UniProtKB/TrEMBL annotation, chains A, B:
Keyword Coiled coil: yes
One Pfam entry name: TetR_C_24
Keywords assigned: Coiled coil, DNA-binding
Location of the HTH tetR-type domain: 7-67
Top-rank taxon, per record: Bacteria
Name recorded for this polypeptide: AcrR family transcriptional regulator
PANTHER family the record matches: HTH-TYPE TRANSCRIPTIONAL REGULATOR RUTR, NUCLEOID OCCLUSION FACTOR SLMA
DNA-binding region range list: 30-49
Lineage, uppermost ranks: Bacteria, Pseudomonadati, Pseudomonadota, Betaproteobacteria, Chitinivorax
Gene3D superfamilies per UniProt: Tetracycline Repressor, domain 2
DNA sequence: CCTACCGATCGGTAGG
DNA sequence: CCTACCGATCGGTAGG
């Protein structure tokens, strides 16, 4: 029971931290900002987290976990390589520009604020997600749908996907699904 | 004469700041770190710059100016659309991963530390560079070399290019030129 | 989770 | 460009 309550409060903190770290940056956000955002005293933060760095790691870990879950769910029951790829693209964009936007932007832009140990742990989580992509791209290459150098291709795709946070505006004329389809068009051969 | 000396010292500071802001982040870098890097007292920094934020802006402005100069030089005398595109790609990678690496990474990753006024000024500089690309891509599209939606394509390309800082290692087996050619291969139609 | 607090450090300034 | 310094703020802790 107490564990459940702890978890909720912890999640609230991670959520608030995602927002603050993303809009002001990690270093610029003070523990006082964060405490105020969830309505507690700054000293009380350290009942939930050992230190400020641990909060950053938790935000990033949540970001990777979220986008991985989205991808796994999107692939469920799908067998056609092209459709798998389409769903991975759309899923990535949906998480990045919608549901897990803040945590994922923190993941992308606060890398240098992580300790090397924390970095290793996040890399491990990220690798699982990248493996998912690699497998789908390999299938697609076997089917002749994409360029055979899938490792290189994957890096190019990741770059394009992640860059969307720099320019995509949800209130514009292009929906996330439409953007995904356009990207897929550029990725597919011929 | 004094102006020349001032400029040199200023440039030294911008160089040192590029390195420090990139490796530690802007907020984490103190004016004392920076002063020590060029061998002066921390208070003396403010003889050269009004405040810390002005140094960040100077670093970023130098980054954009550098990469624009590289692009303009690379295009000089070239008339064939495909070759123009190849040179833009290679030029971008050369600046980003080599000659102006630090300043450009700061430009990519410290965006949220800029004031809105400084942001506007940097955007203006960046627009000039993007226009260069847009024109070359439009020529290439007219020649049927690339997908006709060049605005979208340009954003995808920028993403792929800028993402290379996350994974490219100069001591690996792939040279920058080779990487450029591979990217061009994915960009070109057919 | 709060109260009360501390040591350290930060960006920046005045006066030369 | 240096010396000497300040007010503000920071992450974190002890004790409850």
């Amino acid at each position: 029971m107490q564990n459940t309550l702890d978890k909720t409060r912890r999640d609230e903190l991670i959520d608030a931290a995602s927002h603050l770290f993303r809009s002001q940056g990690y270093e610029r956000t003070t523990v006082r900002d964060l405490a105020q955002a969830v309505g507690m005293q700054s000293g009380s933060l350290f009942y939930h987290f050992k230190n400020k760095a641990e909060i950053l790691e938790a935000v990033m870990a949540k970001g990777v976990a979220d986008i991985t879950a989205v991808a796994e769910f999107a692939l469920e029951g799908v067998t056609e390589p092209k459709e798998k790829l389409r769903r991975l693209v759309t899923g990535h964009l949906t998480a990045l520009l919608g549901s897990s936007q803040h945590a994922l932007e923190v993941l992308l832009y606060e890398w240098h604020s992580l300790s090397t140990e924390a970095r290793d742990r996040i890399v491990q989580l990220r690798d699982r997600y990248e493996t998912l992509w690699q497998q789908v791209l390999d299938e697609a290459a076997t089917a002749g749908l994409v360029h055979p150098d899938t490792t290189f291709l994957r890096k190019m795709i990741f770059g394009s996907l992640n860059w969307t946070v720099q320019w995509y505006r949800p209130d514009g004329s292009m929906s996330i699904e439409e953007m995904g389809d356009r990207m897929l068009n550029l990725i597919l051969r011929g």
